[in-house]
Amino acid sequence: MHMTTQTTTHSTRLDFAKTAPKVFRALIGFDAAAREGLDLALVELIQIRASHLNHCAYCLHMHTNDARKAGESEDRLHMVAVWREARHFFTPKEQSALALTEAVTLVAGAGVPDAVYTEAASHFDDQELAQVLSLIFTINTWNRLALSTGKVAGTDDRRG
To answer: Which of 5, 13, 50, 131 is a Cys-bridge partner for 139, taking CB atoms 3.0 to 4.6 Å apart?
Structure first.
């Protein structure tokens, strides 16, 4: 059987940053405030896991690259999607954050179970937990923005 590769041409969609700059800047501010004081490795793990769940290739590409630049190992990056089967790659604190990320990202399915919340609260003080939750909120917003505006993986043009 012969398989051909199809090239998908994305229609031009809204450039959100240019069209709604005040909202976009507010989201950047929210994101910066959310990550404040959190370990960079944890930030990237949360963003990667939410991006997996939301099927956001644009954000997944961006955050796996950011994690690599920050020194994250390939082994851990490959194991994020299956962290429950590869717990030894992640600390208990990271595991609790990944479980919370899944629950909040998929909130419509089963809410945020008490056991998941309680486990996360046992690893983070109230301030850190609020930061982790805020980061989960922001990456879910970024995923939805990228998906709805047709952002293409590999075209991140951030300066930094």
So the answer is: 50
